[in-house]
Amino acid sequence: MTGAEALRQGAARLAAAGVPGAADDARLLLAHALELPRHHLAAALAAPLPPEALRRFDAGLVARAARQPVSQILGRRAFWKHDFCVTRDTLDPRPETETLVEAALAEPFSSVLDLGTGTGAILISLLAERPGVRGTGTDISSAALKVAQENSGRIGVCADFLESDWFSSVRGRFDLIVSNPPYIALEEMAQLNPEVREWEPHQALTDGADGLSAYRVIAAGAPAHLLPGGRLMVEIGPTQGAAVVSLMCAAGLIAPRILPDLDGRDRVVTARKPL
């Protein structure tokens, strides 16, 4: 079987399983099976597919047909300017979260705390852009912290990682606090696509309540961990802007703003500690 034949059959299998974007996913999985960059795949399509590559491709198709995310099958996801290792213990970094990174980089900072760091994608992206900045990432999951540490070492930035339930183990104050916390309400979980609902860690997706629990803790604790003039920036669901702004203002933070993502949806709330 040639690579082209395998690709055609693989795309048909995924489409029959109801996988969206079946053709693109099949190409990614075949390139992964051949251990090739995706843009080098065309040259391999006319050649017979090696037996080991065919086995890897078939295993990838089986996993994708079960709606496992492609990023978990490949073990990586592109975010900002780097590829990040991902596992079932981490939230898959998403393009809309780059809105938070871009907004954070709009002002200087010398220290940053990332609450619920997961893969470390936000923190590591910020530190890679700002050499010499002190960075700390926290997570309640030791498995996620292991992934973040691996990503930090591979990308070549220096960061501290701390197992902590939000601020519980954090000491010191920072110029910038960022977070992409679990913000999906429990009643909304059933509406998620299976790639998210069945494969990503629920504690990184939902608070098991109204979707605002993490923001209550973060807003209340941020003033004690921000330097004067320091910023708090959080990713939100598109309907949560007003509620999160209210929480920040109630905690004594000032100058709140709601920032949109590239699709025009509310995506980031930012406020700062008074001078």
From TrEMBL:
<feature type="domain" description="Release factor glutamine methyltransferase N-terminal">
    <location>
        <begin position="5"/>
        <end position="75"/>
    </location>
</feature>
<dbReference type="InterPro" id="IPR040758">
    <property type="entry name" value="PrmC_N"/>
</dbReference>
<dbReference type="Pfam" id="PF17827">
    <property type="entry name" value="PrmC_N"/>
</dbReference>
<feature type="binding site">
    <location>
        <position position="166"/>
    </location>
    <ligand>
        <name>S-adenosyl-L-methionine</name>
    </ligand>
</feature>
<protein>
    <recommendedName>
        <fullName>Release factor glutamine methyltransferase</fullName>
        <ecNumber>2.1.1.297</ecNumber>
    </recommendedName>
</protein>
<dbReference type="InterPro" id="IPR004556">
    <property type="entry name" value="HemK-like"/>
</dbReference>
<feature type="binding site">
    <location>
        <position position="180"/>
    </location>
    <ligand>
        <name>S-adenosyl-L-methionine</name>
    </ligand>
</feature>
<keyword id="KW-0808">Transferase</keyword>
<feature type="domain" description="Methyltransferase small">
    <location>
        <begin position="97"/>
        <end position="185"/>
    </location>
</feature>
<dbReference type="InterPro" id="IPR050320">
    <property type="entry name" value="N5-glutamine_MTase"/>
</dbReference>
<feature type="binding site">
    <location>
        <begin position="180"/>
        <end position="183"/>
    </location>
    <ligand>
        <name>substrate</name>
    </ligand>
</feature>
<dbReference type="InterPro" id="IPR007848">
    <property type="entry name" value="Small_mtfrase_dom"/>
</dbReference>
<feature type="binding site">
    <location>
        <begin position="116"/>
        <end position="120"/>
    </location>
    <ligand>
        <name>S-adenosyl-L-methionine</name>
    </ligand>
</feature>
<feature type="binding site">
    <location>
        <position position="139"/>
    </location>
    <ligand>
        <name>S-adenosyl-L-methionine</name>
    </ligand>
</feature>
<comment type="function">
    <text>Methylates the class 1 translation termination release factors RF1/PrfA and RF2/PrfB on the glutamine residue of the universally conserved GGQ motif.</text>
</comment>
<keyword id="KW-0489">Methyltransferase</keyword>
<dbReference type="InterPro" id="IPR002052">
    <property type="entry name" value="DNA_methylase_N6_adenine_CS"/>
</dbReference>
<dbReference type="Pfam" id="PF05175">
    <property type="entry name" value="MTS"/>
</dbReference>
<comment type="similarity">
    <text>Belongs to the protein N5-glutamine methyltransferase family. PrmC subfamily.</text>
</comment>
<dbReference type="GO" id="GO:0032259">
    <property type="term" value="P:methylation"/>
</dbReference>
<dbReference type="GO" id="GO:0102559">
    <property type="term" value="F:peptide chain release factor N(5)-glutamine methyltransferase activity"/>
</dbReference>
<dbReference type="InterPro" id="IPR029063">
    <property type="entry name" value="SAM-dependent_MTases_sf"/>
</dbReference>
<keyword id="KW-0949">S-adenosyl-L-methionine</keyword>
<dbReference type="InterPro" id="IPR019874">
    <property type="entry name" value="RF_methyltr_PrmC"/>
</dbReference>
